[in-house]
């Protein structure tokens, strides 16, 4: 692997961003973090900070007996890019 390949390696970036983790919060009733009132969603939701994979979110969902829909790759970053 060359150095330019390493920069594109998702595992390198996942490792680098772990220090940004501020938590995964479960909300029984969705609360907008921006105060937006144009949303009618009254169900549960997760607030996910940076640095987490979908596997991390799925583990938290299991603790709350909740179901999440992902792309099927647990190592992929939950916030996308």
TL;DR?
The chain is an alpha+beta fold and 81 residues long.
Describe what this molecule looks like in 3D.
- There is one protein chain.
- By secondary structure, the protein is α+β, with helices and mostly antiparallel strands.
- It has one domain (3-63).
- Helix content is 30%, strand content 10%.
- It contains three helices and two strands.
- It has a two-stranded antiparallel ribbon.
The number of E-state strands comes to 2
Record the strand order, biggest sheet: 1-2
The H-and-E topology, N to C, reads as: HHEEH
Helices, by number, come to 3
What structural keywords apply?
30% helix; alpha+beta; 81 residues; 3 helices; two-stranded antiparallel sheet; globular
Topology:
Blueprint: H1 3-8, H2 10-17, E1 24-27, E2 45-48, H3 54-63
Antiparallel strand pairs: 1-2
């Amino acid at each position: 692997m060359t150095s330019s390949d390493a920069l594109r390696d998702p595992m390198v970036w996942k490792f680098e961003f772990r220090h940004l983790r501020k938590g995964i919060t479960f909300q029984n009733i969705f609360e907008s973090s921006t105060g937006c009132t144009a949303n009618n969603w009254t169900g549960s939701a997760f607030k996910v900070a940076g640095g987490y994979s979908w596997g991390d979110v799925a583990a938290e969902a299991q603790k709350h007996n909740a179901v999440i829909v992902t792309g099927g790759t647990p190592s992929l970053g939950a916030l996308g890019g």
